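Dissemination and training. As part of the outreach component of the grant, students in the summer workshop were shown how a complex can be specified as a set of sequence lines and then modelled as a single object. The example used during the hands-on session is reproduced here so that future cohorts can follow it. Participants entered these lines:
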Amino acid sequence: MQNNKKKHHPMEKFLRMDRMPHIWCPSCGLGSIVTAFMKGLGKAEIDINKVAVVSGIGCTGRVAGYVRLDSYHTTHGRAIPFATGLKLANRDLTVAVISGDGDLFAIGGNHLIHAARRNVDINVICVNNFIYGMTGGQNAPTTPLGAYSSTAPYGNYEEPFNLVGVAAAAGASYVARWTALHLRRLTDSIDEMAKKKGFCFLEVVSPCATVFARKNKGGTGLDLLKEYKDRSVIDHSADPQAIPLGMTNEIVCGVFVNKDKPTFWENVENGTSRRVKKEKLYLKDIKIL
Amino acid sequence: MVRSNFHGEFFIQGDIACAEGAIAAGCRFFGGYPITPASEIAERMAFRLPQLDGVFVQFEDEIASMASILGASWAGVKSMTATSGPGISLMLENIGLGMMMETPCVVVNVQRGSPSTGLPTSWGQSDMMQARWGSHGDYGSIAIAPKSPQELFDLTIVAFNYSEKYRLPVFIMTDAVVGHMTEKVVIPTPDKLNVLDRKYTDKKPQEYQPYDCKNSMIPDFAKAGDGYRYHSTGLTHDHRGYPDMSEQCQIQLVNRLIDKIKKNSSDIILTEEKELDGADVVVVSYGITSRTVIPAIHTARKKGIKVGYLRLITVWPFPEEKIKKLSEQVAGFVVPEINMGQVALEVERCAAKNAVTKLVPHPGGGIHKPEDIVKAIQEVAHAK
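and obtained this result:
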């Protein structure tokens, strides 16, 4: 009988099955994002033993704990500098930072723009659910104007960040935005990022049923997902500065930036190799006083 | 690996000696942010690391610097950062992550006058308790206090060795006087250096558990990219590295983080002792202050007081047993430090039942006058 066969999770090779069930809420977008991430890595055909995932704190911060890779669950906002150290100390690694909008753009915003400026060869996947989920629905730097959160009980009065605009302005080599329902395109972007040199940034608009939908009468997670899908349009040629997200406007998706420029390490090598003597050092090279 | 490709006698600054000590210890990653009086360490590393295929990054702040050296360490490279009080305050959260993930690395604090921005170009020893308790929570801590540029070279190597052996961020607690002092430094040939390389697990990936401590208090290390595919987190975790929010797991983990230092303290603690036998008063000092106490001890001896000298080379873990034992023999301890009483509290705690403890405080910006220390020695001797 077929039913006697033990059912295998299709992703179990890539997941820590001994940690299932995960802590994410039903209809959260994170499950499909993790699936797309692992499929994207598979598509890129890179050695899975050479991939490291670094997360910060929050719902998305828990991704590091579920993927069966070298994975580090660090402090709030500091995944990017941790990942920078990891990558530069072993440049054979493919290093992905998977974290939330609060982690990467509020507490960790400074690290994000500087890592993009340096063009460090890491891939940052920012899951944007417009709110702080883990702590119970507080305002995020992405919460749309007028949206409700537990710390904006009269509606949010702060202008949010346009994440793709910030990443592009700071100098990222690759900037894309999809929703958690664009599974095929999300997988393709992760594949492209895994192969691409330089700082790659991907925003994934993801439904938070438990707090964002509830506080903003968004219905269930599925309703929210469908709403994001209906609001989304694909336009690769869009100017990333011109496509902020709001409560009702279009969610412009696409790969907005995909350019080749020297990475941090290439600049180090190009800039210093001519000037640094490595072969045999004499005292005069040490410049000791 | 080329460790240190030169040796000899040099006339160099303490900060530079520290950087050279790190290089000799095999440090090949430095993440830092400029701050007086520690910037010379970063400048030296920026100059030297590219010569040795190392990585130097000047980060956007001290928070990133600290996070980066943890990441580099997990990639299998010895790493260091250097800063002063305000920078340490920013690093503390990730120092705690380093304690929790058990990440070998070295943090240099060239102490200056404080609190807050304080005295950037002047000195202090007022971050000593911060090195013990600075990051939230309970954990064992190792802090080393060099007194000279020579010791900034030698003890930086010791700090790296401790960080590798006990798997934690180790503090070098120097100050602006020693950091900016220029003195003779002897750099030995590489074969004379005692450098401990990182020991990696010999287990196979399928057998390996990142925090398995069945046989010792210090888990085996596996670096990223070697196929172990392990997880590490700042959350309370079990032997697999998986989060475990149970009381039992918390008890086991926190006790081990403390015990791995406490129960090995005899292996870690370094002191220098002079004329403790028959002493009535013992001057306990560390760092630059251990040099100001010398003339004071000479003066007091001329006055007929039997004074001993105890220098804490490692301040944390604190040499509790030594102080307790001495307290049974002496009238009291004199503890001069460039703060308003930090290490003196520990001396007092350990000596409480038997001997008095006299603090000679100094808020920073200067160093003690020997006569102030002499006065304290006399007071303690006469109280006998």
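Chain B has a mean pLDDT of 96. Students were then asked to discuss how this feature might be tested experimentally.
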